[in-house]
Specification:
By secondary structure, this protein is mostly helical. The chain has three domains: 80-157; 176-265, Transcription Factor, Ets-1 (DNA polymerase, domain 1), CATH 1.10.150; 266-453 and 465-520, DNA polymerase, domain 1, CATH 1.10.150.50. It is built from 22 helices and no strands. Helix 1 (2-119) packs antiparallel against helix 2 (124-150), helix 1 (2-119) packs antiparallel against helix 9 and helix 4 (201-210) runs antiparallel to helix 5 (217-223). The longest helix has 118 residues, at 2-119. The chain is elongated, with a radius of gyration of 36 Å. The protein starts with a helix and ends in a 5-residue tail after the last helix.
Amino acid sequence: MNDKESFIHVLTDQVEAQGVKISDLESSLEEHQHKLNSTEEMLQQERLSRTSLESQKLDLMGEVSYLKLKLVDMEEKQIHGVERQHKAEVILQELRLLKEKVDHLEDQKSQYERRLKATKLRDVNDTQVLNIMDSMFMKSNTVLSSRIRRTQSGGLQGEDLEPNHFRRGGLRATAGPRLTRTPESGSTVRDMNTPFSQWTREQVCGWLEDYGLGQYVNLTRQWVDNGQTLLSARPQDFEKEMGLKHPLHRKKLQLALRGFSTKAMEKSSELDHIWVTRWLDDIGLPQYKDQFHEGRVDGRMLQYLTVNDLLFLKVTSQLHHLSIKCAIHVLHVNKFNPHCLRRRPGEERNPSPSEVIQWSNHRVMEWLRAVDLAEYAPNLRGSGVHGGLIILELRFSSETLAMLLNIPPQKTLLRRHLATAFTALVGTQATREKWEYANATGHAPLTTAAKVRPKKLGFTHFSHLRKRRPDDLADYICPIDSVSLSAMNGVSHQPYVGVRGLSPILDREPERREQVGPKS
């Protein structure tokens, strides 16, 4: 009996000891659980902070790229400015010599006048001598005045040529697109109504420099007499006389000269090539900024970009061609307003397609963060995805977006979530149109590997070349006529009510509608 009680006592002690250990373990578990929860909260905050930092990093990278290009442009202008200053100093020396000659002629004239008054000789010979001296004096003054204007410097007057009064700027001809942006810059030089054909040699050279073609000024100064020289020149003359071998530089010059000839003021001419490099950031294609900057592609050139132009700029991706095409179309519709793209989220809660069409690449990434896909948003950098491409391109679907975001196919729930958010973004009508097009016969889905090849004329086209206008042969990325007609008339066959009249890219003729109908 005693053994049994002793055994029970031992067991009781062990149970109590185990109970104490269990309570200790439970308290330790609660403590670790609390630490785990705290760690998870900190991790979530770190993720949010990392997402915010990545967004700021992208913004800063874009700003740094823009500032680098701006710095390069300013350095080029500074180099040209030093050259102009040196030339101005040389011309100033010539002006001093001319002034000395004028003073000498004035002294001679005064001597002749004194002699004539003293002798009171009024015969014809003396009168002729006086007239000759007056003529020489007037010619000298005329030469002096032209020399002053050719210095391209402001503040120089014929009677005040001392070095300490020499000031730069003011008389340089600043015409063309840059004059449109700053009307006051060239008002003291010439009347805006003066035809380009009547511009002087120095006005033409000054305009070329402001137009981003300053490297051709030296040869141009040796060739042109006035603006009419450029207007009447043939395309091959530009290469021969100006050394203008870059095809896009030739196109830039020819478009500007055509604008002078037709006197058609295009809103796109107000956007210079620096703005275009920032625009490439907005549409998600910053990797092409160097090529566009080297080609001096400005707003007016965007209107007339062809497939071969983009290939020359090393844009070979089919998706990137479509991105630029849709982005140019958005510019057309907004009359080349430089601020038409939206970079930041606004107050809109349920944006319509007509609002989404103006979203920049960064705004699309902000939308991805808003729909809980922040970790994939940075993958859109350099993809060319913007609101115009999402809305206007029929082949761009949620599957295309998932591919560009690098969402693995096995993550079906994540892709389904993206598809739902994409449908809510573009609207049911746009979704149905995209679905019909995707299920049409001969449909080729968009891929990142698809390339664009140069357009070549076949043998059968050569017999019609003389009958067609040069513009008819240009394969523009975004046809101008269809854009202007649809924007003015507001008539479109495409079913996007929110963007009616905005998308000739989506407009299709009745017979094409039959071809792209759903499969039976």
